[in-house]
Amino acid sequence: MNTVDLLLHPVRLRVVHTMTGGRTLTTAQLCDLLPDVSKATVYRHVGLLADAGVLEVEGEQRVRGAVERRYRLNRTRSVIDADTAASVSLDDHRRAFAVAMAALLAEFNAYLDRDHADPTADLAGYRQHALWLSQDELMEMIVEMRSVIVSRMGNTPSPERTRHLISPILFPAEEGPPGPADKQG
User: Fold this and answer.
1) pLDDT at residue 75, as a whole number
2) Is position 12 within any domain?
3) Integer angstrom CA distances of residue 74 from 1, 20, 49, 77, 132
4) Res 14: pLDDT
5) Sheet containing 66-73: which strands, arranged edge to edge?
6) N vs C: which end of the chain shows fewer Cβ within 10 Å?
7) What's the half-sphere exposure (Cβ side, CA atoms, 13 Å) at 66?
8) What is the reported pLDDT for 179?
9) pTM greater than 0.85
C-alpha cells in the first residue's frame, strides 16, 4: 500500500496524530486514547502502520505471556510530501480532504465526549476567515504560519503540556483574477 492510500484512512490518521510529539505508546495505550474506536480496529490499523514502517517498534516486553510492543512514529514515513501531493489526482485530493475532515470530526467528538470537556476554557476554535490575498501575500502568510507551527512541532509531552490538533485548511473560495497569460492585449 502506498503512503497516500495508507494515510488516507480516518483511524490511521488519528493514530498518527496521537503518536506525534515523540511519544512511545503500546497499542493498549492507543486504545485508551481513542476510546471511540474499537480495540480490534486500533490493533488492525497499528499493524498496517507498523508493517509499512510508519510506526517503529521502540521496545518489547512480556505481559501476561504475550509480547507487548511500544511504538514510535517514523516522521519520514508519516507524511505525504509535496512532490507526492502534487502528483495526485483531483479525486485523490477530494478523498484526502474527506478523510482529513472525518478524522478531525472524530477527534472533536471524542474531545466533546470526555468528562469535563469545556471548549471555552480550552480555547477550542473552529473559525473561518475569508482573506483577500495576492499570490505574494499568500506565500508570505504560508511561510509565517509554517514558521509558527514548525517551531512548536518538536515539543514533547510533559505534565504542563496538552496535545492539541491544529488543522490549517486553505483554498481559494473564488476564482482569482486572470493571470498574465489570460490577459488579452
Assistant:
1) 84
2) yes
3) 16, 9, 10, 6, 38
4) 92
5) 24-26, 66-73, 55-63
6) C
7) 5
8) 55
9) no
